[in-house]
């Protein structure tokens, strides 16, 4: 499938200055270097919250609104999914963003003395 968002790679083959000089490979020879600009899409990570028996449902809903930009309805749906199934997805982010979300949630839960756990996993 093409989305129009694919990265473009450029290959540049050129002779280095001095390649025709007296040293190195010698007269009449040239070294061709290839400079490849390779763009790679970043790896993505799921941020998950885990169920426990003590964290209040309303606190989890608030976490999802505050750190994951969910509206009340989406936050409640995710919270209930975690309550019923043990684990659920809050969002998908690049490594540094995911790491920051996990830290923010863990710090906020700890400050409020709730055992809520938040983890990330590579997709
Ligand atoms: N199981 C908790 C309760 O009954 C609610 C809860 C939901 C806790 C989701 C954590 O990630 C969680 N109060």
TrEMBL record:
InterPro entries named in the record: ClpS, ClpS_core, Ribosomal_bL12_C/ClpS-like
Key words, A-Z: Hydrolase, Protease
Pfam families the UniProt entry points to: ClpS
UniProt key word Ligase: no
GO biological process: protein catabolic process; proteolysis
Gene3D superfamilies on file: 3.30.1390.10
Adaptor protein ClpS core domain location: 40-118
Keyword Acetylation in annotation: no
Record-level Gene Ontology MF annotations: peptidase activity
Alphabetized PANTHER family for the sequence: ATP-DEPENDENT CLP PROTEASE ADAPTER PROTEIN CLPS, ATP-DEPENDENT CLP PROTEASE ADAPTER PROTEIN CLPS1, CHLOROPLASTIC
Membership in a protein family: Belongs to the ClpS family.
Function, in words: Involved in the modulation of the specificity of the ClpAP-mediated ATP-dependent protein degradation.
Quaternary data: Binds to the N-terminal domain of the chaperone ClpA.
Name of this protein: ATP-dependent Clp protease adapter protein ClpS
Organism name: Aminobacter aminovorans (Chelatobacter heintzii)
